[in-house]
Amino acid sequence: MRIQHLDKNIKMNLLEDLLKRSPNNYGKYEQGVAEILDHVRSEKDAAVFTYTEKFDGAKIDASNIKVTEEEIKEAYELVGEELTGIIRKALFNIRDYHERQRQNSWFESKPNGTMLGQKVTPLQRVGVYVPGGKAAYPSSVLMNIAPAKAAGVDEIVMVTPPGKDGKVTPTTLVAAHEAGADVVYKVGGAQAIAALAYGTESIPKVDKIVGPGNIYVALAKRAVYGHVSIDAIAGPSEILVIADETANPRYVAADLLSQAEHDELASAILVTTSQKLAEKVSEEVDGFLNELSRSEIIRKSLDNYGYILVADTMEEVIDIANEIASEHLEIQTKNPYDIMTRIRNAGAIFIGEYSSEPLGDYFAGPNHVLPTNGTAKFFSPLSVDDFIKKSSIIAYSQEALGAIHTDIEKFAEAEHLTAHANSIKVRFEKK
Amino acid sequence: MRIQHLDKNIKMNLLEDLLKRSPNNYGKYEQGVAEILDHVRSEKDAAVFTYTEKFDGAKIDASNIKVTEEEIKEAYELVGEELTGIIRKALFNIRDYHERQRQNSWFESKPNGTMLGQKVTPLQRVGVYVPGGKAAYPSSVLMNIAPAKAAGVDEIVMVTPPGKDGKVTPTTLVAAHEAGADVVYKVGGAQAIAALAYGTESIPKVDKIVGPGNIYVALAKRAVYGHVSIDAIAGPSEILVIADETANPRYVAADLLSQAEHDELASAILVTTSQKLAEKVSEEVDGFLNELSRSEIIRKSLDNYGYILVADTMEEVIDIANEIASEHLEIQTKNPYDIMTRIRNAGAIFIGEYSSEPLGDYFAGPNHVLPTNGTAKFFSPLSVDDFIKKSSIIAYSQEALGAIHTDIEKFAEAEHLTAHANSIKVRFEKK
């Protein structure tokens, strides 16, 4: 990996480079996606079945679009006890963490009869999109369903494209069943998003759609936003490791590679105060590259978006970490908690040399759906917050409103909203 | 107002009617907005000054784009002590409510050295858009700035278009200064949104843009979403009143009209179990219409989106209220708290006959920026939550990772992510 001295120019170039990964060349697919959405909106099931045959090569109709108990049983047999057991252990941790994110409704009251509050209500029905085939990650199924369940969502509807044989990836089904999906429909692509957003004879309309997907799925989600809610569109994966001379170069190298293997747009960055560590990590990376199965992808992603940066001070390291606002941030230094307190912007922060990033992808409990591409400056990990919404509660008594009614009337009149003022006035007019 | 018996057909028609208000005919402005965004992104201040002269007829440059202390002082004189005093009283309540929305960072730890947590960080810099001229509402300035301040945002940057004389609406300035805006720039429209999203020589780039605006502002916000965060695009205002035979028809009528006066797309709906109340409210509405200054707007909005619906049972009333998911919901019944517990979907819930909706617009404390057009099914009022973001914290010790390392390795291998598995393995390889 290239080693560079961190200076202002490098920093500006790096930040520009990373933002280039934001895919803006989507326009050419938009028309096609809009047609699918319109068609499913008007023709419902019939359109869903037509597109499933066209894009997935599978014959699906109202009689077999819903995954059966029989199929779930078969999936468990195919997945086997060992992996099912691991999925259960991971799910236990994921549930435990997300249950701690629950928020309470609250109110405060005053002796004059005022009550103000905030009511927390789970979303009623949520749709979870799960990609098919090679892009089917059971860990991702757990991470999308568990926070919805912890939030108390009434009904979780999963959609995933069938293979040509009309079957769904077995690990997806096992993960869905374990995590608590209420129903799984065999439909994918933009047609699945349309079905969830508008409803069809077979598939009920939902309030929110979450889960990763290809470019068609992403564009369809963006198009239905506002009609239903959606999660953030995921960008390419990222890791930034902060390390000093005390870090283990072999661990740092392995962790950089674990993100670089995702795809050619993934970014892996080490920022360190130690030139010696920088060199050793670079050597370890070269060593691992000869052993790893996805080394071709890794080489490309490291060539494009891999950096080892040597900074003069830890302040500069922290500063660039906050600027980049990485999806995953590892801190492998002498006093990692001290550094953590100075981090403003990161999706997930991994502290110390035994907190390798894949621990968070699979097992620790916090969500692995994280803000990418600098959006950790203003977005948060997927959480229970995404599956609840709040309503304000306002109750005033005659006494409480009486004490301030002329103020409200005057404020409304200053804004020329006389019917607003009138609605207060009528309550205090002489009878 | 028309009175109808609530049945299935009425319900379907009503829901369709309300959704029609969603403005989809925006395409024709998109190209123009995109040009402004591109131009400001590349030419920065120069483009901002050109557009301000073109659209606002005001000559603004780097020397006078920032509102001065002198101008703020002048604004206080123009606004006068009475209105300033009312603004301060309202702000006190708004602050008090929003400070209760603050969330804490938290962690949990285990004796094996595991620490998991969630770090809450305020956004660093937020932009607040405030319309100029007639659409300038000081209450809206308070409602957009107060939650950002309560969240602990470092810097609040306000933008608002100048009049031809280069001045900013005085009530806007007073409200901004009271609420705690750090700086106010005289720029409006899509050019203001572009300046906040990309930064110029005069105006710093922000992390999130909030606040209402016209169609150009709304389109510009949508276009920069992802590069920065934005609040929800506001739709036309709505009120739904749930009332039984115990309600005061004069209060109900006045409250319906207070929303109908906003604009011709506003919606005012009464759903009641009492035919008698329905008739009396209709009469009261007619009476008020002759007195109110904005009666022309009110007549149009009532003709289009005003309904009095009589239902057979309170269950049906609650059901349609949850379906409509109104921005504002008033409950004027014998046992309003009992009904409140059954409400799933509403932006703000006003309980009892002295909790008139304008109380919430100006004074009670909860935010008046609320989800519209059915989006209360999945969106929340503007709150402190909009000005914070969270980072997951993951720390495992050697002991804690050692207990599960083979599980993670197997999970990663099941997903064919061998570099993920490797990053765990290297930590337990024989040295």
Automatic annotation (TrEMBL), chains A, B:
NAD(+) binds at residues 129, 191, 214. Pathway: Amino-acid biosynthesis; L-histidine biosynthesis; L-histidine from 5-phospho-alpha-D-ribose 1-diphosphate: step 9/9. Keywords: Amino-acid biosynthesis, Histidine biosynthesis, Metal-binding, NAD, Oxidoreductase, Zinc. Signal peptide: none annotated. One of its GO terms (molecular function) is histidinol dehydrogenase activity. Its cofactor is Zn(2+). Its EC number is 1.1.1.23. It is an enzyme of class 1 (oxidoreductase). Substrate binds at residues 237, 259, 262, 328, 361, 415, 420. Zn(2+) binds at residues 259, 262, 361, 420. Binds 1 zinc ion per subunit. The active site is at residues 327-328. Pfam families: Histidinol_dh. PANTHER family: HISTIDINE BIOSYNTHESIS TRIFUNCTIONAL PROTEIN (PTHR21256:SF2), HISTIDINOL DEHYDROGENASE HDH (PTHR21256). Catalyzes the sequential NAD-dependent oxidations of L-histidinol to L-histidinaldehyde and then to L-histidine. Belongs to the histidinol dehydrogenase family. This is Histidinol dehydrogenase. It comes from Dorea hominis.
